[in-house]
Amino acid sequence: MLLRKTSLQPVCGVTRFRQRLLHNDFSLEDDARLDAPMELQLVLLPFLEASQDRVSELLRAAELGHLAKVEEMLQAPFDPNVAGQDDQTPLMLAASHGHEEAVRLLLEAGADKDQCDGSREVPLHVASRNGHAGVVRLLLEARANRQPQSCSATPLLLACSEGHLNVAKLLLEAGADMEQGNSSGNAPLHAAATSGHTEVVGLLLDSGADRQPEDPYGGIPLLLACVNGHLDVVRLLLEARADKDQGNSCGDAPLHVAAYSGHAKLVQLLLDARADKNQASGFDMETPLHAATEANHADVVRLLLNAGADKHRASGIPSETPLEVAQQRNLVDIVHLLRDESKAEPRVRVRKHGCCSCFRRYRRGSRHPAEAWTDVFRWPAVHDQDAS
User: Which residue of 10, 22, 259, 348 shows the fewest CB atoms closer than 10 Å?
Assistant: First the structure.
């Protein structure tokens, strides 16, 4: 009877769960066999009205993957699209927990594969985020929308953010847009690079994804990978010819953030890739050497000096050399490094309105202006010839 009901579905437009085949007013079970030709009557049942307890029962069965119970309640027949708290449906719960057979049953019963919950997510979102490749495959085979607009993020972006390689492959094979971002403007490559998912980054690059999409702040995947210290991801992006010197809207370039974060291996990798070691960044026009000094990363300072970074280059506002920054903050190890590199002494720079660096040091933490002046006179100093 089961096969016969399935074959009748395209004809009557009703799933097997709502069909009843009668012989002599007796309902035949799904496992009944016909040994001879006989006259049958087809009855199509409406959904039963479900109490809250029965709704909760079906939701719980789907969530736990209890197939017999799910089958029993669909045969009642109850609507597979009943929703509970936060508009969670049986299909949403089964997909979220990776219960493939329960998902298959619910889809067969006519569950809406694109129905949103209270968070405006659909089953494909939760299955992708949780890495349930089998469920994702079932939903795609059922023609679920691979690019639903209801949620702030696409299923592909969620899979990339969590590092689910097989799910990302399925979605890309189904034609998911690898450039579509979330509500914050981050593309799948941003998400994978930020989280350090090297294989997913490789998959996206091999699939032809833009290697340097910009988020609303001008951040590219290479920059985000540097912020979080993901060495292998940075290496992949550099091999894909991502711009090693492209900064965000604040002017922060990959070498700046790697230096400030103290990621020495990343700094070396970027230097080997010929990143600009003296690039001025942001409103203060600080170099990577300034950034490493301010964050007290002596090992990074040493790398930059060995690569030929200009230790005499002053920042913009306030105008300070790396050595002045180190002395101001009493970073003894870095002071020694910067002094050992050259016998040139630090300079006191004067801004156009006549305010010298001692007052800036006071505003940035000295307890009294006199201490700042004392610091200046304690250092061997010469005035810039171009100071005005």
Answer: 10
Q: What is the pLDDT of residue 283?
A: 64
Interval 139-175: pLDDT, tens: 999 999 988 866 779 999 999 999 999 999 999 999 9
Report domain extents, the chain: 5-44, 50-151
Architecture of domain 50-151: Alpha Horseshoe (1.25)
Average pLDDT over all residues of the chain = 85
**The pLDDT value given to residue 356:** 31
Average of pLDDT values for 237-250? 94
Q: Residue 324 in contact with residue 315, Cβ under 8 Å?
A: no
Report the pLDDT value the prediction gives residue 43, as an integer from 0 to 100. 87
pTM of structure: 0.81
